[in-house]
Amino acid sequence: MASGALGRAHGLDWSPATIRSELAVLERVGLVYKPHAASGRVPSAEGWRDYVRQLPRKRARPEHRRLLDVGMGTPSTDLRRGLRSTARVLSELAGCVAIGFLGAPRPGKVEALELVGLEGARVLVMLGLEDGASTVRTVDLDQSLVEGEGELGRLQGLLRELTVGRSLAQARDELRGLLASEHRRVDQCMAEALRVGTLMCVASFDPLWMQVAGHGSLVVGEQNSADAGSLAEILDLLEDYQRLAEILCQLLPASTNGDLEVSVRVDLDLELDHFGCGLGLGLGHATGLTLVGCRLGWPGADQSSSGGSPATGAVALLGSPRMDYEAVIPLVEYAARAMVARA
Predict the structure, then answer these.
(1) Which domains does the chain have, with CATH numbers?
(2) CB under 8 Å to 159, separation ≥6 — which residues?
(3) What's the confidence (pLDDT) of residue 183?
(4) Which terminus of the chain faces fewer neighbouring Cβ atoms within 10 Å, N or C?
(5) What contacts 227, CB < 8 A, 6 or more positions away?
(6) What are the beta bridge partners of residue 153?
(7) pLDDT per position as a tens digit, 212-259
């Protein structure tokens, strides 16, 4: 939009030259930028964050609260059904991807790990826990490791050494520590062991009740983006509930004083490891995404399958930085409080 048209659209009593001068100042301090030489200026990630910080705190709209209350049902309603309804209502109201989950940490230690070669460079990896639970995933390996004599057995031995006898959380922390400190020094087989081990040990929630709604809104919102690869990775992530739960728990801070607090992350840049087994998205300005979410905790929730560990979870919206923050932030906060009240 030209500076003169911008002034008329917003009723600014400024000349076009003054508007251009002010936009230039905003660009110098990093609050707006030009995607290309011939374009106008649009808010940067920092510009959106500054805008969100200055928003007045409001309550969710009454009609939105009523919809969420009806969808969630009474306190006796099965929480899984409430999660499903909540995600769908949030997605429709906000026009974003809505995510809700409840899980409890698995306390058992890894007792067994097996690799089975499949067709090509794919292998089946099974983790068995001492409490009887198991995790099975198919992963792609470097072709040389599959074809090399004894390499698959060596990889299995390394994985057992890194994981067996540890809880999933302990194994994950150990693997990430090695990834951070030794990734330049390890050989190819160790690098693959660290990558596969980190991928397997993400599955640290049991049970995991999750609902994701509104995939289509993300596709429509980003269909003109030049960064289709990043969008494909995001859509894959939304189908991988264990990894999605792990990422949400990392991005959304846990409550320290019992109060729920909505966190807003604009222009996500997720780097979970050095070998691509998590999600590495440098989204930049091409696909910019915003996460508006709230981390939940239920000290009294069902803990029978988790050895008494407190349940945790999240309510979140994932969408364009241009979402209606004034409506979305109180909406997420209300949904989070309502979920905790019904647990």
Answers:
(1) 15-43 (no CATH), 55-105+205-342 (3.30.450.40), 110-200 (3.30.390.10)
(2) 113, 115, 125, 193, 196, 197
(3) 56
(4) N
(5) 283, 284, 286, 287
(6) none
(7) 998 877 765 544 444 455 666 777 778 878 778 878 887 888 776 667
